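pinning this so it doesn't scroll away 📌
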Amino acid sequence: MNDVWPIVHAERAALIDDLTDLTDDQWDHPSLCGDWTVHDVAAHLINNAKTTRLGIVRNMARARFNFDRQNAQGVERERGATPRQTLARLQQVATRTSTPPAPLDSRLVEEVVHGEDIRRPLGINRIYPSEAVVRSLQYQARTPVSLGGAKQLIAPVQLRATDADVSIGGGPEVCGPALSLLMAISGRKSALGDLDGPGVSALE
């Protein structure tokens, strides 16, 4: 669905705005994404924006088909010597429409989840377009864990958004804001505190 690109581009622009006035200490702050800092996540988003169907095959081969190694090499390649340089690189790729061989809604997941990986630890609040969050949530819910999704994780429960008309699955209910549901099923355990219901423990 080509209509994903305007939403992706808007999210990239919003994140650039939020990054513009950060201090160096904030750029070095731990993100919600593993051991990566805010600076590392920004570099990862640059690499994602530049990824092509052929390019990811070459990069995976260089990483000996280790996905985590491929991501780490992408961060190292795209991270600038200074936050300003990295920000400039992010601005340069903000309107790109290149993509790996994956459904286009995966581009929304990258922008929303990684945007929150940066914003939440820094106390930056963004009200995302509902469509961006809902489509990301639905994509993660139907995508196997082996491909970065949460299909098997959520199989025992029902996800119900309290701020959108979304209900996914059956079983013990997990309810809360759609954004927090998305973050929780994307492996961000800190978002579990935003959720209620008898099924929450299944996501821990």
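📌 and the second one:
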Amino acid sequence: MVGPVQSIERAAAILRLLATGPRRLGLGEVASSLGLAKGTAHGILRTLQHVDFVEQDAATGKYQLGAALLHLGTSYLDVNELRSRSLNWADALAARSGEAVRLGTPLEGKVLIVHHVFRPDDSLQTLDVGALLPLHASSLGKVLLAFGAAPVESLLKAELEAYTRHTLVLPEDLNRALDEIRELGWGSEVQEMSMGDAGIATPIRGHGGLVVGALGVSGPVERICDTGGRPQSALITLLREAARAISRDLGAARW
């Protein structure tokens, strides 16, 4: 049996590093992070750059993911069954709720946004498809954790990042929130990832009732929550109806 090809493994490691980093990385940073010689890292980066999987900033010489790789990712998302089954329902939910709608799935300890419908108004908005959100500080992530779609144990052992003063970083606080989500059937985050913003999410189930993703609405606190800071019941109802419809399309008999 043919073993793994080392150069491909190294190239994959570089792509993962660039994908998870918050900024462009220099040659030295890539090499030291992966324990590679600078010459080896440079050769792989030049090859990835040649096929447009990596781009180099002309001013700083640092590297980031290239357009061709991002296009491949988008192509994958287009054929993803969860996303394709959710498109019409997510669009309708955005229109009925007046809020932005996002669909997320677990990926390597984060929430990958696989579909995003803009809030139906003229405000400036940024497309989040392909973005990775923290599990513990997003409504989508907490729903995935609560219903077993993402592992909780390793997360509780880690030092959780506090994005705002409202972020749940203590294991007992997060566990309490997850218990409540399981009881209610939906989860929320209010100013836990960024001040002034809030979100509500609910699980999407596939065959056998297993949770395969989460659907959520998000926006400014004053639009998502009532005057008491609680998620608006009307939004929760619309969200859960859409999630049930997607789940039925995915073959979840319980819905």
